[in-house]
Amino acid sequence: MPSFTESKKLPGVIIVQPDVLLDPRGDYTMIFNEQLYAEHGIKGPFVEHCISTSKFGTIRGLHADYACNKLLQVLHGAVFYVLLDLQTSQWEGFTLSARNRLQLYKPAKYASGLLALTDDALFVYYQDHYYDPRRQQSWRWDDERFSIHWPLHPIIISERDEKADSKVLLR
Questions:
Q1: Which active-site residues does the annotation give?
Q2: Residue 51: CB atoms within 10 Å
Q3: Tens digits of pLDDT across the chain (171 residues)
Q4: Are 76 and 121 in contact (CB under 8 A)?
Q5: Taking Cα atoms as reference points, which of 83, 64, 61, 57 lies closest to residue 141?
Q6: If DSSP states are collapsed to H, E and C, what string results for the chain?
Q7: Which residue of 78, 87, 89, 90 is 20 to 30 Å from 9, comparing CA positions?
Q8: Is 18 left (phi over 0), alpha (psi -120 to 50) or beta?
Q9: Which whole-number Å values give the CA distances from 65 to 45, 74, 107, 111, in the listed order?
Q10: Can you tell me the distance from the alpha carbon of 87 to that of 171, in angstroms, rounded to the nearest whole number?
Q11: CB atoms < 10 A from the CB of 140, how many?
Q12: Contact, 106 vs 113, CB < 8 A?
């Protein structure tokens, strides 16, 4: 049975540590059970499932979609994943990896970003709303108001993230 822990810093964020069953053939991990997860505050339905890969040193974010809750995890490699409360500038970082198999439930009220810690980090997330570019907001990963301590300096940044408006009013 997976364990479910709520973040002490960010209300509503749930960290899931799945059980891994090992035997001589390999391993088995249940990554989602609608009834069990709903009992712990993770409710779907998840209507859109997405995968992204990132090279070492790639940063994605900070992004927000205030309609969309997400359940996320890393299937290959590792990322440093940041959740940010824009009302308080409080943030929390999590190392998600294929090795630790942690899952994270991100309520819609938080902005987020990730930094790839390995080459070909494979990141998967399940959304409870369909992507809509009109709802997307971005802030610079290095915005001084947030004082986020990234474990390494990003070396690959998209044009969207490089040009994100750090003067956007906080929600």
A1: 63, 125
A2: 9
A3: 899 999 999 999 999 999 999 999 999 999 999 999 999 999 989 999 999 999 999 999 899 999 999 999 999 999 999 999 999 999 999 999 999 999 999 999 999 999 999 999 999 999 999 999 889 999 999 999 999 999 999 899 998 888 887 555 444
A4: yes
A5: 61
A6: CCEEEECCCCCCCEEEECCCEEECCEEECCCCCHHHHHHCCCCCCCCEEEEEEECCCEEEEEEEECCCCEEEEEEECEEEEEEEECCCCEEEEEEEECCCCCEEEECCCCEEEEEECCCCEEEEEEECCCCCHHHEEECCCCCCCCCCCCCCCCCEECHHHHCCCCCCCCC
A7: 78
A8: beta
A9: 17, 20, 10, 7
A10: 6
A11: 21
A12: no
pTM > 0.90: yes or no = yes
Give residue 167's identity as a one-letter amino acid code. Answer: K
- Euclidean distance between CA atoms 20 and 119, whole angstroms: 24
Provide the residue count of the chain: 171
